[in-house]
Description:
Blueprint (H helix, E strand, L loop, with lengths): L4 E3 L4 H9 L3 E3 L5 H6 L7 E4 L8 E4 L2 E5 L4 H6 L1 H6 L1 H10 L2 H6 L2 H5 L51 H7 L3 E6 L2 E6 L22 E7 L8 E6 L10 E10 L2 E10 L6 E2 L1 H7 L6 H8 L14 H20 L1
Pfam families: CO_deh_flav_C (PF03450), FAD_binding_5 (PF00941)
Keywords: FAD, Flavoprotein
InterPro entries: CO_DH_flav_C, CO_DH_flav_C_dom_sf, Diverse_Substr_Oxidored, FAD-bd_PCMH, FAD-bd_PCMH-like_sf, FAD-bd_PCMH_sub1, FAD-bd_PCMH_sub2, Mopterin_DH_FAD-bd
Amino acid sequence: MFPFLLDKPGSAQxxxxxxxxxxxxxAGGTTLVDLMREEVERPERLIDINRLPLGGIRVEGQDLxxxxxxxxxxxxxxxxxxxLQPLVAESLIEGASPQLRNMASLGGNLLQRVRCPYFRMxxxxxxxxTPGSGCAAIxxxxxxxxxxxxxxxxxxxxxxxxxxxxxxxxxxxxxxxPKGERSFPVEELFRLPADTPHLEHTLLPxxxxxxxxxxxxxxxxxxxxxxxxxxxSYEFALVSAAAALAIEDGVIREARIAxxxxxxxxxxLRACEAALAGRKPDRQAFxxxxxxxxxxxxxxxxxxxxxTLLPRTIVRTLEMAGEIA
Length: 325
């Protein structure tokens, strides 16, 4: 480990000023500390934000509002989350081991770095770690990598499970920075790699996530998350899917679908959603809609199986969501 400075600001404004000057926020540290140990990241100044009043979970009308510092375990176990947004709770439980869920904050989970093994190998090229050094994954072992949203510079998947659920649910994020506050869809938090994969999110320098807002609605009752992985626990998704259905009089009035493990960011499937509107929630409708999920896919040498696995995962997730109705 290398030397660094640690600040513990007493207010959000102090934290933002320190971050704008080049510091890095740290909460649970479940990703950043590992990367610092491996010297993949070498921040000179850390800003511990755990003293800030950014936790808690509350209900406003139909909306669920979750503080950025709320721990994953706390959110998953909260009675209002389980009642109003069971998809969020399910994705959090699937997202990490109990020990990590006790430590990791919701805001930190959204901003965690990629789990591509080449990102952590200092002796190979990685454009995320060192811009312009190449992407070893493209010609390397890439079974766990993305087939959607990739570029010639990066093919790493976004690792967060709960981000997939939040994107499907049209959640928004509220942030504060040197220029004030703003809110925007969680989906817009994540960048595509293009030719700048080291730029992973759209936060401006110093901006701090304050809270997440998850809007309610009839779709939230019929919502499930399914994660397909190499082993039963503590493993990142090969393919995952979040599906929410608003069903009225035996007909799908609205569908929400997002997937993980296949995209360079949580991937919303609006074509699949549109194909389900007005249909009965049956297997034929689900299969036909799911076939649209792989449009634009660019499989690599070792991950072409995801082109088949993705539609199957979506179908099963939709069946699980439909069973609740």
